[in-house]
Inverse folding.
């Protein structure tokens, strides 16, 4: 078996396409943002990525139909007035071993390079370990020019964050992208790190929309954010009553919140 | 060394063969069912599968003869009146790493595809975490048509089970099977998850027998189920006397029951 | 880099050679026996085996000279009156991953097959979990004929031991050897499992000497056994005095005994 | 993706070059020494090494620019009066799996062999588990001749140290180097093992400077050593006050010291 299998579902010609990556990770911010973008753009399926570097797992739909875990590329053809088409990479998992991360990222970059991609935006969460009411969007980039460009859109480049660098797909797509002569930016929404965070995803997407000069309706994402708030509030109240905790910051990730999204 | 070595023991021509997979797993339900089917059909050895993705281990028989751990394919030629021949895949282990699971499944599917297999049934246990007196058979399938077909045979498709999908060979044979254009069904017998469960295996096999339109004598499997009941009862009584436990549900898997089968 | 590198040090023609394997393991019995056999036979170096499946480690001699960890093949030319030459496989480590075990064993077997090997003896310890005063030698073999032959030499074939089969090189050389049409026997010396056991190694070698019809002087091995006894006795006395333990069986492996050998 | 990618930045001809390796490890002694040597020699970048055997990680500079983790080769052209050019290997990580260690070392050695390297010096720390005021430099080498040569420069070859051999890149570059017919020496600076140790790095470099007959200004390295002393002293005082500890030896590695360097 090939280590990574990329099945092309449709042959398309793309105009100066930009790749947007958002896979599961901290607060699921990147995945929430990429999935929402894909839905709002009504992007179409382009390719499915299977790999032995994913868990040996299938998902079962409510109707009882199985589906092998995968990553997926969708494409969006920009209207004639807009400059660039968009590719969105999402999926169920990142590679589950360090070597798998490298192999998957390299294969997807190679495939996207063949489609004309020369620039990558990766979307992620940045865990602050405390509740974040108004999440800022932190950045990292492959060139000084992009850093300056991002600052214009309100992205924060902090001297100390992220201190230990970026681990996982969001960093690797930029780092390995350099070997394909791709430029790139990582947009990190601040988040507590305790549960999925649609509000942080919204902050990231708002920056991205400005950069890409596209319009996004955030109604559904905000509804999801309110739903998470509501559940978090309930948990907080229950804990206060039982005396288990008296602060607004849960001391550990909440399983009951972990899969909203 | 090849990662997976498949040794063909006999060249056979098969008529529209269906593959039945049953490897060790939850409650050993799948393995119990596949082994029992193989014995009842008096299926003949077709191929032995060795792999570095199995543990580096040999078993020693009571006579002192060693045997390298393996998976095995047996075949059954249906009588002229019946429509389809049967392949049964069983063995000592599933692959012990995620990558090994993928490699093994892909290689076996490729081999079976060469034998004409276009449909797969995988047999498994579904852990309920409590004693199950009358195990239902839950299902998952590759197409809506198969879901409907299975419902006719009493298979339950539950909106929420299995919630996190299927992990391991039973899911992967269906998920990767799709890449070979194979259709498939997973039949999961409800089981406690605490010990091997011949009764659950019987429930699964009864569905399979109806689907395959074959006759199976369940006398020996029921005897095994009674033996497990008897031992479980003894343990329960001993625990009640010693005050260690007072419920019918053991709180953890029992080693002394773990290898009946 | 090749996964396994076998460097031939001398080209030799061997007469119906038999391979004797003894690598580190339970009580270091196999390694002690193989190393002692090699020394007593004054076997000559034939090949060195390096591999990325060993730890990334070098040893440093008392003179400060480094040596990469390896396995090693030595050969012994039997006198004209004796029927068979001997190859001894020893070394610093078994492969440190399951896949590495398979790869190493397969490569060494392939190499030895090229030298004419058709029969393998593997030497190992069998942990009893209690002090064993007069270690028996347990056996496992690839054929009923060899089982009968070994029984004549006092080897014990126990219905229940080893219950879970053999894990590691001693089993794998026989199991994979079957794929090379090699016959083989595993000789397991009973041992406590708590420390290195030259006495168990002696028991194993005594059987092997009878099988191979060679003479071995056991003086040095017995001296080593007495040294281990002496240290074990001292520890026992110290523990008795301090009240830490009052039985002759240490409750855990002793580091201070672990590397005598 | 290739397992190891070596990007040559400049084509150079080198005169009998010697390879100096210093990667992260015990007390970061090897890395501190190699980095300092590279800076003092104003060595120029020759090649960058990326690999899936490193963590899937990028670092972010204070300016927000990302950089994929790597190892790096720098070269120094010796003045006409000096006999040999120098290559310095440094970087962010050693390979993170045993197999990765072998693959990386083998590939770098192969590359350096192509550049004419026939001799390797590896720099490392040797953990003593106690504060070391005047670190000695311990040695290990590939030949008796080099042992004698090193003794002339004050290197200590201790019968018992390092007892278990050397694990990691510093040993492997010598051990695998032998397969390329390279000679080599490992210089190990004594260190506590509790924090980064510029003073031990200085001891190692002083020996190396004598061997290579080069001049090194140690002012900056000594300043760094004083800084570490100062912080260690503060911690000690704080612990004494709080009664947590009353000895000069911290009982565990200090995170706040771990990344000075």
């Amino acid at each position: 078996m090939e280590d990574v299998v990329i099945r092309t579902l449709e042959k398309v010609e793309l105009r100066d396409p930009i790749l947007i990556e958002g896979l599961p990770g901290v607060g699921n911010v990147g995945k929430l943002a990429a999935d929402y973008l894909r839905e709002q753009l009504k992007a179409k399926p382009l390719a499915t990525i299977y790999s032995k570097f994913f868990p040996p797992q299938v998902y079962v739909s409510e109707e009882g139909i199985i589906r092998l875990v995968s990553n997926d590329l969708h494409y969006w053809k920009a209207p004639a007035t807009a400059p660039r088409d968009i590719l969105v990479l999402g999926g169920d998992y990142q590679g589950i071993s360090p070597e798998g991360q490298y192999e998957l990222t390299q294969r997807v970059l190679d495939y996207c390079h063949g489609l004309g991609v020369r620039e990558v935006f990766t979307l992620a969460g940045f865990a602050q370990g405390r509740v974040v009411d108004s999440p800022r969007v932190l950045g990292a980039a492959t060139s000084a020019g992009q850093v300056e460009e991002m600052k214009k859109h309100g992205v924060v480049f902090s001297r100390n964050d992220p201190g230990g660098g970026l681990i996982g797909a969001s960093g690797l797509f930029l780092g390995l992208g350099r070997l394909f002569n791709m430029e790139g930016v990582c947009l990190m929404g601040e988040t507590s790190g305790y549960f999925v965070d649609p509000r942080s995803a919204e902050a990231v997407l708002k920056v991205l929309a400005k950069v890409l000069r596209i319009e996004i309706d955030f109604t559904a994402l905000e509804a999801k954010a309110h739903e998470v708030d509501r559940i978090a509030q309930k948990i907080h109240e229950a804990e206060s009553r039982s005396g288990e905790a008296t602060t607004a910051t849960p001391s550990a990730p909440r399983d009951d919140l972990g899969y909203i999204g």
